[in-house]
Specification:
The chain is of the alpha+beta class. The strands form 6 sheets. A 6-stranded mixed beta sheet has the order 3-4-2-5-6-7, with helices on both faces. α3 crosses α11 (395-404) and α11 (395-404) runs parallel beside α12.
């Protein structure tokens, strides 16, 4: 007070005032280094303590087409593990399981398919070390198999192929080898570097061989972590438990997590009150490559968010309060690839790789477009097709684009409703085309650094056709419900059927009850007449759009 500084007992003093007060009482003040909660944390800094590194268990994700036996394979591994008399029993709710095979550990992520795996990747979390691709020997390579290969490749993880259902009469492992060789997975028997293991989840054949191969690949990868450092890792799953509150399944990737530790997870924090392993037993601490259920968080964290242990709860709360993860999200979105960004990169002389995801309406168009784009590769920039498929642009495509830093090219197809929102959230650029030459010209112009965008398409409204009425002398009227934005008379529209553009033209007439109206907003029903087009069906989507000039 004598210094003119009025502070209550709970207020913080600045260093100068605190120093004077301490000197008055006969103490010297030393200024300590305090971690800045807003500063981005270095994630997985095991490399900085080379002398303290120890080998860690590999984290494995099982991917593949629906019904090819992913779950059966995990069940068979569990049974093998139990009959071997080692610690076993995978509980599915925790989302990850740790098994002991011949004195060595393997962690399996029980994530539902490649979409969940990629959503973790899209958030910048390098969670898995090995991907096991399950292919049914009697069915062969399916669209989701190809998608899983592309997702694993984008994540840059080694792939082991488990040829399942070898007990079936129509099993043909050589056909699988031949089909997968077209996608760059060449078997070791054929002079390639991909391990193929024939297995039967039903009979339990080949399971031990598969586990041995996983351990072999892990040994070659030489996976290390530092158990002496504070724990860091990723949230695999989370939920709100009625009795225990917010519960998160953490995968510890580096360091040791203990009961009583203060943790910051994205924009939430907490103190670890209890830890449960994958068998439901209470543990006091867990080391690297261990899945564990954590109780004591203030809110339910998002899957894919990164957690870290801090020195005290106050610092953890500060870290969460400033939304360190939100800042990282924003930074991540800003760094996504766009064609304009590519043009700038070439002009500044930074050699780049252009990653593309191509979705087309039919197989022929997709293959032609893929071939034409791959031929555009130049010295400065290589065109890399991460994934190509048939059908509407879906959320899985957006997540893969976010993980692989790719641009999504849609040829005669449209994004699904969820995909549009995901693209905005993830900052992924979607480019839609109707003419193949436009795609090639734009990509070529971007590669040459000449791209000058003049117009951009903006969606003004979407309506779903609920009933179709034939009116004499007028034609077909689509009884529609406006789901978002608004429909305006005279606006440019396209009619989308099963994700594919069936018509492009003008909205000719717009009625509400018997009245002609100029526009109808979201949440209302209306009658829509399309110019020179009568083949409207229930379930069709009418999308209104306008071309906006971009300087």
């Amino acid at each position: 007070m004598q210094l003119g500084y009025l502070a209550t007992i709970n207020q913080e003093l600045d260093v100068e005032v605190a120093g004077k007060v301490a000197a008055e009482l006969g103490y010297e003040v030393e200024t300590a280094e305090v971690a800045d909660p807003t500063a981005p944390t270095k994630f997985l800094t095991a490399e900085s303590n080379q002398d303290k590194l120890v080998s860690r268990a590999p984290v494995v994700v099982v991917l593949g087409h629906v019904d090819h036996g992913k779950t059966s394979l995990l069940d068979a591994i569990r049974k093998t593990n139990v009959t071997a008399g080692e610690a076993g029993g995978i509980t599915q709710h925790i989302g990850a399981s740790r098994l002991e095979i011949k004195g060595k550990n393997i962690v399996f992520l029980d994530t539902p398919g490649h979409e969940a795996f990629t959503s973790l990747r899209a958030r910048g979390a390098r969670v898995t070390d090995i991907a096991v691709l399950v292919v049914a020997a009697d069915e062969g390579v399916k669209p989701q198999t190809v998608e899983a290969v592309n997702h694993a490749r984008a994540a840059q993880v080694p792939i082991i192929v488990a040829v399942n259902k070898m007990d079936r009469p129509g099993a043909n492992p050589d056909r699988i080898r031949q089909q997968l060789s077209e996608y760059g997975l060449v078997s070791e028997d054929w002079g390639g570097d991909t391990i193929f293991v024939p297995v039967s989840a039903v009979k339990g054949d080949g399971i031990e061989d598969l586990l041995e191969m996983i351990l072999l690949v892990a040994e070659m990868a030489d996976l290390k972590a530092n158990p002496a450092s504070p724990a860091r890792g990723t949230v695999v799953e989370s939920r709100l438990d009625r009795g225990r509150g917010p519960v998160g399944t953490f995968l510890v990737q580096d360091g040791t997590l203990r009961v009583g530790d203060a943790v910051a997870v994205g924009n939430t924090s907490g103190k670890v009150r209890a830890l449960y392993d994958d068998k439901g037993g209470k543990v006091e601490e867990v080391g690297p490559s261990t899945p564990v259920e954590v109780v004591g968080l203030s809110e339910v964290p998002q899957a894919g968010e990164r957690f870290e242990v801090l020195s005290d709860e106050r610092l953890a709360r500060q870290k969460a309060a400033v939304g360190a993860d939100q800042g990282w999200e924003k930074e991540r979105r800003q760094s996504r690839a766009t064609l304009d960004d590519l043009k700038r990169g070439i002009e500044e002389g930074r050699a780049r790789e252009l990653n593309l995801i191509v979705k087309a309406d039919v197989q022929g168009s997709g293959e032609a477009l893929r071939g034409a784009l791959e031929r555009l590769s130049a010295e400065e920039v290589r065109v890399n097709i991460v994934h190509s498929a048939i059908g509407a642009i879906n959320e899985s495509d957006i997540l893969l684009a976010a993980a692989a830093d790719a641009i999504v090219i849609g040829f005669n197809v449209r994004p699904e409703q969820g995909a549009r929102g995901a693209a905005e959230r993830e900052g992924v650029e979607i480019r839609l085309y109707r003419i193949i030459y436009e795609v090639i010209d734009e990509i070529q112009a971007a590669l040459k650094g000449l791209l000058e965008p003049k117009f951009r398409e903006a969606t003004k409204g979407t309506a779903t056709v609920r009933a179709v009425f034939k009116v004499s002398k007028v034609g077909t009227i689509a009884g529609s419900y406006v789901t978002e934005g608004k429909m305006t008379k005279g606006v440019s529209v396209r009619l989308i059927r099963d994700g594919v553009v069936a018509y492009e033209g003008r909205l000719d007439s717009l009625r509400r009850f018997k009245e002609d109206v100029r526009e109808v907003a979201a949440g209302y029903e209306c009658g829509i007449g399309l110019e020179n087009f009568n083949d409207v069906k229930e379930g069709d989507v009418i999308e209104a759009y306008a071309m906006e000039r971009v300087e």
